[in-house]
Design brief:
Layout lengths: L6 E4 L5 H12 L3 E6 L3 H13 L3 E6 L5 H15 L4 E4 L14 H29 L2 E6 L2 H5 L5 H21 L4 E8 L5 H4 L3 H9 L9 H12 L10 E4 L6
Parallel strand pairs: 1-2, 1-4, 2-3, 4-5, 5-6, 6-7
Helix pairs in contact: 1-2, 1-9, 3-4, 4-6
Bound molecules: NADP nicotinamide-adenine-dinucleotide phosphate.
Length: about 250
């Protein structure tokens, strides 16, 4: 198994893309901490699914927008398991609106969870990974952060910020045996995209060269690769998993 006994924290892993990432990492032997904010029962279901298949997992409630709570989460994981090898910053929300109509609150909420949440977790895990002289950090960005997207000023800014954060921390950590990469998913079928109207979905589909939406497992596969030894010489990269939307 590719990740035998490695400890992985996946934020927002009770549902959607985070759930698929947690299941994939566990299927390759990682001990997975399934972080959630509000979806307690769904996070527990993910843990049950992993343990039923012979894997190891546990839930941890934490709002990633809370700096101190993220510190407490890392401390607890390190106390319980002795190490933390893989951090996947997946937690994220959207609050779409045109810039003209976007409130300061809508902007701040998205930045606080999507961008600051990733900073909080990376900051609190950095000391431990440096001590270990090994670690993998994988941040979930978006094609909206690469190309921009009308109606998503807050979200695009947060996801572009993730890319800057990824490249900078990759440079800071490279000599310490820690890789930091970002994945920019295109349109993936989850509750986040289910809320979009059929008209919007059709217009997005037109922009996808492969003419199909992605599924959460497509992102899980890329996270597994980046977390594994096979990706040992890759850092500071942004990999689009998007059916060819961004080239
Ligand atoms: P989703 O189905 O809406 O799930 C969002 C996840 O984020 C949930 O597990 C949620 O946990 C968690 N979360 C939200 N706020 C949180 C907080 N304050 N603290 C901790 N966890 C929090 O969305 P998704 O489609 O799976 O998206 C996952 C990631 O992929 C996001 O970063 C998103 O921006 C990115 N992405 C998605 C797409 C797409 O097409 N779906 C495309 C590009 C990028 P609770 O339910 O426990 O609150």
């Amino acid at each position: 198994m590719m990740l035998e006994n490695r400890v992985a924290l996946v934020t927002g892993a009770g549902r959607g893309i985070g759930r698929a990432i947690a299941l994939k990492l566990a299927s390759e032997g990682a001990i997975v901490i399934v972080n959630y904010n509000g979806s307690e029962s769904r996070a527990k279901e993910v843990v049950s699914q992993i343990t039923e298949q012979g894997g190891k997992a546990a839930t941890y409630q934490c709002n990633v927008a809370d700096f101190a709570a993220c510190g407490q989460m890392m401390e607890t994981i390190i106390k319980d398991y002795g190490h933390l090898d893989i951090l996947v910053n997946n937690a994220g929300i959207t609050k779409d609106n045109l810039l003209m109509k976007m409130s300061e609150e809508e902007f701040d909420q998205v930045i606080d969870i999507n961008l600051k949440g990733a900073f909080h977790c990376m900051k609190h895990v950095s000391r431990q990974m440096i001590k270990q002289r090994q670690g993998r950090i994988i941040n979930i960005s978006s094609v909206s952060g690469v190309s921009g997207n009308a109606g998503q000023a807050n979200y695009s800014a947060s996801k572009a910020g993730i890319i800057g954060l990824t490249k900078t921390v990759a440079r800071e950590m490279a000599a310490r045996g820690i890789t930091v990469n970002a994945i920019a998913p295109g349109f993936i079928q989850t509750e986040m995209t289910d809320v979009l109207s059929d008209k919007i979905k059709e217009s997005i589909l037109e922009k996808i060269p492969m003419k199909q939406f992605g599924v959460p497992e497509d992102i899980g596969e890329m996270v597994l690769f980046l977390a594994s030894d096979k990706a040992r010489y890759i850092t500071g990269q942004v990999i689009c998993v998007d059916g060819g939307m961004v080239m």
